[in-house]
Write a structure and sequence with these properties.
The chain is mainly beta. The protein has strands spanning 2-7, 10-12, 18-26, 33-39, 46-52, 57-59, 67-72, 77-82, 91-99, 101-104, 108-112. The protein has no helices and eleven strands. 30% of the residues are buried.
Length: 114
């Protein structure tokens, strides 16, 4: 089992920044991928960004150039630095860990509003 604890969500004005963190604990394998999905009401869950244990990154087109994903393997923690936030980024962000199967965090709310 893997347990994920997220932090860093909140309310920010358009153009502002937030940093999400997600720490994994439990049966962590050295080869894995971690990242973030988001799901707006009435929409399908969207992969925002992920990073594998080799450091390869993926970004959704909607966040390229604004979001940066990174990880600290020693801490089994993934970070999502979100800059130039837009109102359409408002939703719940879910951290995930994948190695043989997916594990999900509880979700953290990000609200971009003036």
């Amino acid at each position: 089992q893997v347990h994920l604890v997220e932090s860093g969500g909140g309310l920010v004005q358009p153009g502002g920044s937030l940093r999400l963190s997600c720490a994994a604990s439990g049966s962590i394998f050295s080869i894995n991928a971690m990242g973030w999905h988001r799901q707006a009401p009435g929409k399908e869950r969207e992969l925002v960004a992920d990073i594998n244990s080799s450091g390869n990154r993926f970004y959704a087109d909607s966040v390229k150039g604004r979001f940066t994903i990174s990880r600290d393997n020693a801490k089994s923690t993934v970070y999502l630095q979100m800059n130039s936030l837009k109102p359409e980024d408002t939703t719940v962000y879910y951290c995930f860990y994948y190695s043989q199967r997916n594990y999900w965090g509880q979700g953290t709310q990000v609200t971009v509003s003036s």
